[in-house]
Amino acid sequence: MADDGGLDVTGVGKLAKAIPQKAWIQLVDTACITFREAIAPLTAISSGFGRLITAKFDRLVDAEKVLAAENVAKAQDKATKSKRAPSGTPKANIIIAVIEASGIQTDLLLRELWANLLAQELTTANIHPEFPHILSRLSAPDAQLLAQVADREHAKNEELKKIITKFSAGILGFSLTVLGSERASFNHEHLHHLNLIKKEEGLWRLTYTGRAFIQAVTEP
Q1: Residues of 30-47 as b/e, b for ≥16 C-beta within 10 angstroms?
Q2: Between helices 140-151 and 108-124, what is the axis angle to 10°?
Q3: CA distance 134 to 2
Q4: What pLDDT digit, counting tens, does each position of 44-70 carry?
Q5: How confident is the model at residue 3 (pLDDT cuts 50, 70, 90)?
Q6: How far apart are CA 85 and CA 15, in angstroms?
Q7: Domains of the chain: which residue ranges?
C-alpha cells in the first residue's frame, strides 16, 4: 500500500500473481464497491448516464477496475474537500474518459492530474472535452516541464496566479528529472505542438490554452 493509504500502483501489474486468487477477488470486489459509492451522487442526479458510467467501468479488466476505482474515489474526495457546490451536472464523456485513462495509468503524477481533472468536473461541470485528450498525450516529464514554465509565469490575474502556483507546487513536489530551462528539447516541442507553451523573446511562456489546461488539472 502507498503511504497515503492509496494503492501502490507501481506493482499492480504483478498484483494478481502476488496474492492468492481469493484475496484478489476480494480486492476487485472492494474496488467495485468503492467505485459505486464514489459515483452514487452522480447516479442520484441522472440514473441514465449513471448506468452508462457503470457499464463502462464493468467492461474494464479487473486490474483496471482496481486502478480506476482508486482514482475516482480520490477525485470525489478532492471535490468534497473543496467545499464547492456543484455548478452543474458533470458530463458523462469526461467521467468516462477519466475512468478509462485511470485504469491504465500507473504513473503517480499523471494519476494525480487525472484525479484533479475529474474533481474539477465534479465541482464545475465545465471541463472542455479537449483537456482529457491533451492530458492523455502528456508524460510525467512533460507535466513537470509545464510546471516549470508555469512557475515563471507572471499572471496579472490574482486568481490565476494562485492556481498556477498551486499547480506548480504540486507537480514539482514529485521527484522527477529536472529538465533544461530555455534550451529546446523534445518535451518543449511536444508541449508547443499541443499549444500549451510558446516561445516569446527567447523565453518559453504559457499560452491561453496552457493556462486553461492548468486550471483544469489543478486540484479544486
Answers
A1: ebbebbeebbeebeeeee
A2: 70
A3: 27
A4: 666 677 888 989 999 999 999 999 999
A5: very low
A6: 38
A7: 9-127, 140-216
